[in-house]
Amino acid sequence: MQEIVQQIKGKQTARKKFPFLLKEGIIFPPQLNLEQSSSESTAHYKSEILKGNKFIDLTSGFGIDAYYLSQNFNEVTLVEQNPELLNIVEHNWGILNRKASFINQNLEDFLSANKEYFDAIYLDPARRDQNKNKVFLLEDLSPDILQIREKLLSTADQVVVKLSPLIDLKYLISVLPGIFRIEIIAVKNDVKEAVIFLSEEKREGIMVNCTNLESGESVFTFTFGDEENAGAVYAEPEKFIYIPNNSILKAGVFNLLSERFGLKKLHPNTHIYTSDQKVSNFPGRIFEMESIESKQVKKKEQFNIISKNYPLKPDEIKKKYGIKDGGESYLIFTQSKKGKIILKSV
Ligand SMILES: C[S@@+](CC[C@H](N)C(=O)[O-])C[C@H]1O[C@@H](n2cnc3c(N)ncnc32)[C@H](O)[C@@H]1O
Predict the structure, then answer these.
(1) 237 and 210, same structural domain?
(2) Fewest CB within 10 angstroms: 181, 236, 241, 277, which?
(3) Spacing, Cα 109 to ligand 1 middle (Å)
(4) Does some domain include residue 223?
(5) In the sheet that 179-187 helps form, which strands lie side by side, from edge to edge?
(6) Could you report the per-residue pLDDT of 39-58, keeping only the tens digit for each?
(7) Does the beta carbon of 148 sit less than 6 angstroms from any atom of ligand 1?
(8) Which part of the chain is the PG-1098 ferredoxin-like domain (predicted)?
């Protein structure tokens, strides 16, 4: 009975997360392994970045990342400490007609005995602590990348590590030398992954790509040096209001947006931009809005409420003004250089 339930749950997850596995004969692992897997869309995006001869995934898990990321390689190796999980992956890859070496070993043991050199190593460490609210450090992951960094870099041209978007990028760069690229990947504006690329080769600057998949697809590319050298222009709200995609906000790129798109920022701590002329290629949401007084907010009217750099959260605003959630119109509660403001869509 338990086995049947596991397979039904697996199919349900696959429908949303990895539909390529909805095939006769595919076996699904327990829920935790499904939850730990990447989605087909983020794995597919990452696969377009990597290519070479030999690929190894040291934390195979259910093998979703490995399946996509290894597509542009000739030889593929999967390492996984959990024997039942690796057996399932080997079985499924047989059904999918994909060849690989499946190694059931602790990756630290594998690395110390290994003499092969790879073009790319991929790791998607599992979190030891499931407490989602805690700020987490690299030491909280299994494996701890800090412990094996040197070994990894002497085993491959590039090392690619998937991390939770909750990780602090400044902290990451300060503790992990050799990062030359970061991908911040969001799906439908929900930031899912921060993927870092490491190499022993010295490279100038860290390239950051902020991507949004599945809705208004966009990529915004910059280096931290670009952001440091950029200066924002400030203004009170004009006709068009811009809210950047969450992958961009996560990367902490604020002044450069003002410079690159010729937009004015409302306040140093308000990451909302404005212009008189519409800039259609902006990577984020664009509204046409006007400033209103708080007494113009009518009770029982329906609005989508956005609160940014404002003392009250949307729920508190709803309560205070007696407004209903939803509908087509937006209210933005925020701050410009002059102080607290309310913007209403026109
Ligand atoms: C987050 S999951 C990987 C999911 C995978 N990227 C996917 O898309 O399906 C991490 C996996 O790494 C494995 N793992 C963690 N530490 C390991 C270690 N030291 N040696 C080998 N495998 C390890 C865990 O058993 C788990 O299956």
Answers:
(1) no
(2) 277
(3) 14
(4) no
(5) 101-104, 75-80, 54-57, 118-123, 156-163, 190-198, 179-187, 207-213, 218-223
(6) 999 999 999 999 999 999 99
(7) no
(8) 240-283
